[in-house]
Structures are given as C-alpha cells and as structure tokens.
Amino acid sequence: MSPRRRRVDDPLWKSILEQTFSHFLQFIFPDADAVFDLSRRFDYLDKEFEQLFPPEGNGKGVRYVDKLVKVFLKNGNEQFVLCHVEIQSRKGDGDLAERMFRYFYRIWDRYKVPITAIAILADENGGYRPVVYRQEFMGTSLRYDFNSYKIMDQEESVLRANENPFSVIVLTALLAIKNKKISDEGLKAIKHDLYDEMINREMDKDTRQGLYDYH
To answer: How many independent structural domains does the chain possess?
Structure first.
C-alpha cells in the first residue's frame, strides 16, 4: 500500500475511478446526491473514448489518464462526465486547456449529450492550474471553462476528516507528492496510516478492495 508514484499506463487510476465513481462524484460535486441518480449503473465508455482519441506517443513528459462515463440525472436524462487525471506536467506546456476543449467538442459532436469535465491535477508544479481555454480573432471569441482540482493545494487534515472514501485516494496522492524522498521506515508508517484511514470509512467490499489495490 505504497504512496509512491505509479506509471500512468498502469490501469490503477482508471480502475479506482470505476470502483469509487459514485464517491468521486460526491467528493467533487457537493450537490451530487441531488443531481445524479446514483442508484443507476454507470456506463464507462473507454472504447468509445479511444475511438475518438486514439492513444498516441507522448514525448513531452506529460502523463495522464482519461475516463469518460455516462451517468443518469434524477430527472432521467443522460449526461457525460469526463475525468482527466494529469499525473505529471511540464511547466509552460499550456496544452491541457486546449486538450480539454478538444475533448469537449469531439464528444459533443459525436453524442450531443451534456458534458461536465473535471481535470484532477496530481502533478508537483505549483503554478500549473489551467481552468479555461480561450480563443479570439477579429471579433469572434470562444471561452471554455472546466472544473479543476489541484491535489497539492489540499489540506491533509481536511482530507483525514472527510468520510468520503475518495478522500483516501486524494490523501494518498498528496502524501506521494510530499514524501518523494522518504525513508523505508517512514514509508512503512505511511502505509499503516493510510490503511487505518481506509478501515475507518464505511464502504462496500468492492470499493474497499479498490482502495487497497490502489495503495
């Protein structure tokens, strides 16, 4: 159950999002219970996403994971939730906002379903906080805003006090950022600490197993 960074092509980020997705929605969106019908199954559109955005080599040092999920609202309507997890970035790249916009317009063009997008920034670049894409030329302008959640901005004490199981995921990522050069003994103590945080929260068996595998 180590907080050390994993490779982005490791399926654990995608897996943990599937196993904790209702908790993820409640963690990110305070009004999730009033908006989403969490009693209905989620539809994970991995194949559909890859058809729109085929995997490609990335030589820029940017590492990320994407998840497109179809959810149902309380009124019965469908909506898509796009979750982009950026593990590592290079300062000054500036392409995340454009990429988020490209995701939006291609998904909308294909499905014509409302989309909410969230970029989870798990990188260590304190000045990297993209939240909007803008384009303007001779009186024509476009602005695309999206949700952004910066893990290194979070308070450890607040995460520990949060009973939502997804807070353990964020806490794990935060400790990985803070303790890159930790000793083996220190790492062992963190592992026990995170295990206690997981045990102290109420969750179903699959969610608990997902958290255990993630660590």
So the answer is: 1
pLDDT interval class at 17 (50, 70, 90): confident
The DSSP element (H or E) to which 171 belongs, if any, is helix 166-178
Rounded distance, CA 215 to CA 3, Å?
Answer: 6
In this structure, is residue 176 part of a structural domain? yes
Structural domain for 143, as ranges: 12-214
Helix, strand or coil, per DSSP, at residue 199 = helix
**Angle (nearest 5°) at CA 101 between 97 and 107:** 145
Backbone angles phi, psi at 107, to 5 degrees: -65, -45
In a domain, 42, yes or no: yes
Q: Is the pLDDT of residue 57 over 80?
A: no
pLDDT for 6 beyond 80: no
Can you count the helices (H) and strands (E) in the chain? 9, 7
Does residue 178 sit within a domain?
A: yes
Cα distances (angstroms) measured from residue 115 to each of 60, 79, 81, 130: 28, 6, 6, 18
What's the confidence (pLDDT) of residue 150? Answer: 92
The DSSP-derived string for 104-153 is: HHHHHHHH---EEEEEEE-SS-TT----EEEEEETTEEEEEE-EEEEGGG
What pLDDT band is residue 110 in, cutting at 50, 70 and 90?
A: very high
